[in-house]
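Issue: copy button drops trailing tokens. Both records pasted manually instead:
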Amino acid sequence: MTDNNDFPTETVLSDGSVYRVVPVEAGVRAIRAWAEYPWPMSPAQALALRDRLGWTSSPTKEWMFTTDHGIGEKDASFTTIKREQTVADFHLSLTSRIPKPVRAEAVPIAERAFEAYVEALTAVYGQGDRSRSRGVLSVTWALPSDTSVDIGTVGRVVSVDIDSPASNEAARGEAQYFAEIADENDVPYIDIDNPDS
């Protein structure tokens, strides 16, 4: 397994800003807490999990959190499926944002952190599916619960999205619907979000 010291968790960049990376052990612990939750999850259960993890909500938006990972900003959030009042997905930043003029300085650190996270999550969930779309490198794991874990990187920012079984089921239903329409019209369906697929 990659040693967490293969990348610094704090780097002072040339403009004086600090680039922070969540240590792999802490990040994986948080990812597993959300991904392995016995779904479905209500918003109240999500807030209870937030409390167990020691995180705090934004004063105005309780679904946006500041974790204890030391990034120093709102770095986690969840969304809900309104009609069912269940959590659809959870988002967690694993690195801080960087001012544009010094972004290139953070890219090598982000790349090492991304690979360390992929290695750690592969040890837990097995081999994921690696893909690249519009410059975004990502690895996705489909868990037996039908929850999915997707870690991605855009240059210097690394984050993870956890989609609930309900969200994944809705996405499959939508894909099937559009595939059926395409068959009926004998016109190929083009996914505008993934034109290469």
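Record 2 (pasted manually too):
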Amino acid sequence: MYPVIRAFFRSLIAACAVTCVAAALAQSPATAVARAPAATGELKIGLVNTEKLLRESAPAQRAFKKLEREFAARQADVERVAKKFRDQSASFEKEQLTLNDADRRNKQRELEVLSRDLQRAQRELREDENLRRNEELAGLQERLQKAIQQIAESDKFDLILQEAVYVSARVDITDRVLKALADK
């Protein structure tokens, strides 16, 4: 499959070269050769595994630890309410046969209120965590893009892809990006 892609990009570059040469000739024949890309040169392609970068990069790990610390207290509160609900539910199951109707209804209402409070707290925590995670991911992806851009420019890559079905180790630059992010 890779040779097919290479052939496609070579033909694309050749077509672009012809277009550039034709456009340059229309402007000035003397500068036509200087402006046309090398149609016969090797195409330098790199690939980055974004998922691996988001999982293993130092900035990503710092961001996720920061999120864990930020939401640890709220998570503990939700777990405390969940334990209280479980304990009261178990207690109600044991006592319900001995309770009169009014007490049973009151206990059921208390459990329903506690259940709704628990569900609301869980939902709010999830929503807030997702919002903050998305904020952190946006900043992280910006840093990743800058690091990839710097490597592309310094090593003169023609094309860097972020996902592929198969990747040869020869074109995978994920580890270089991880190292560049660790150095910052």
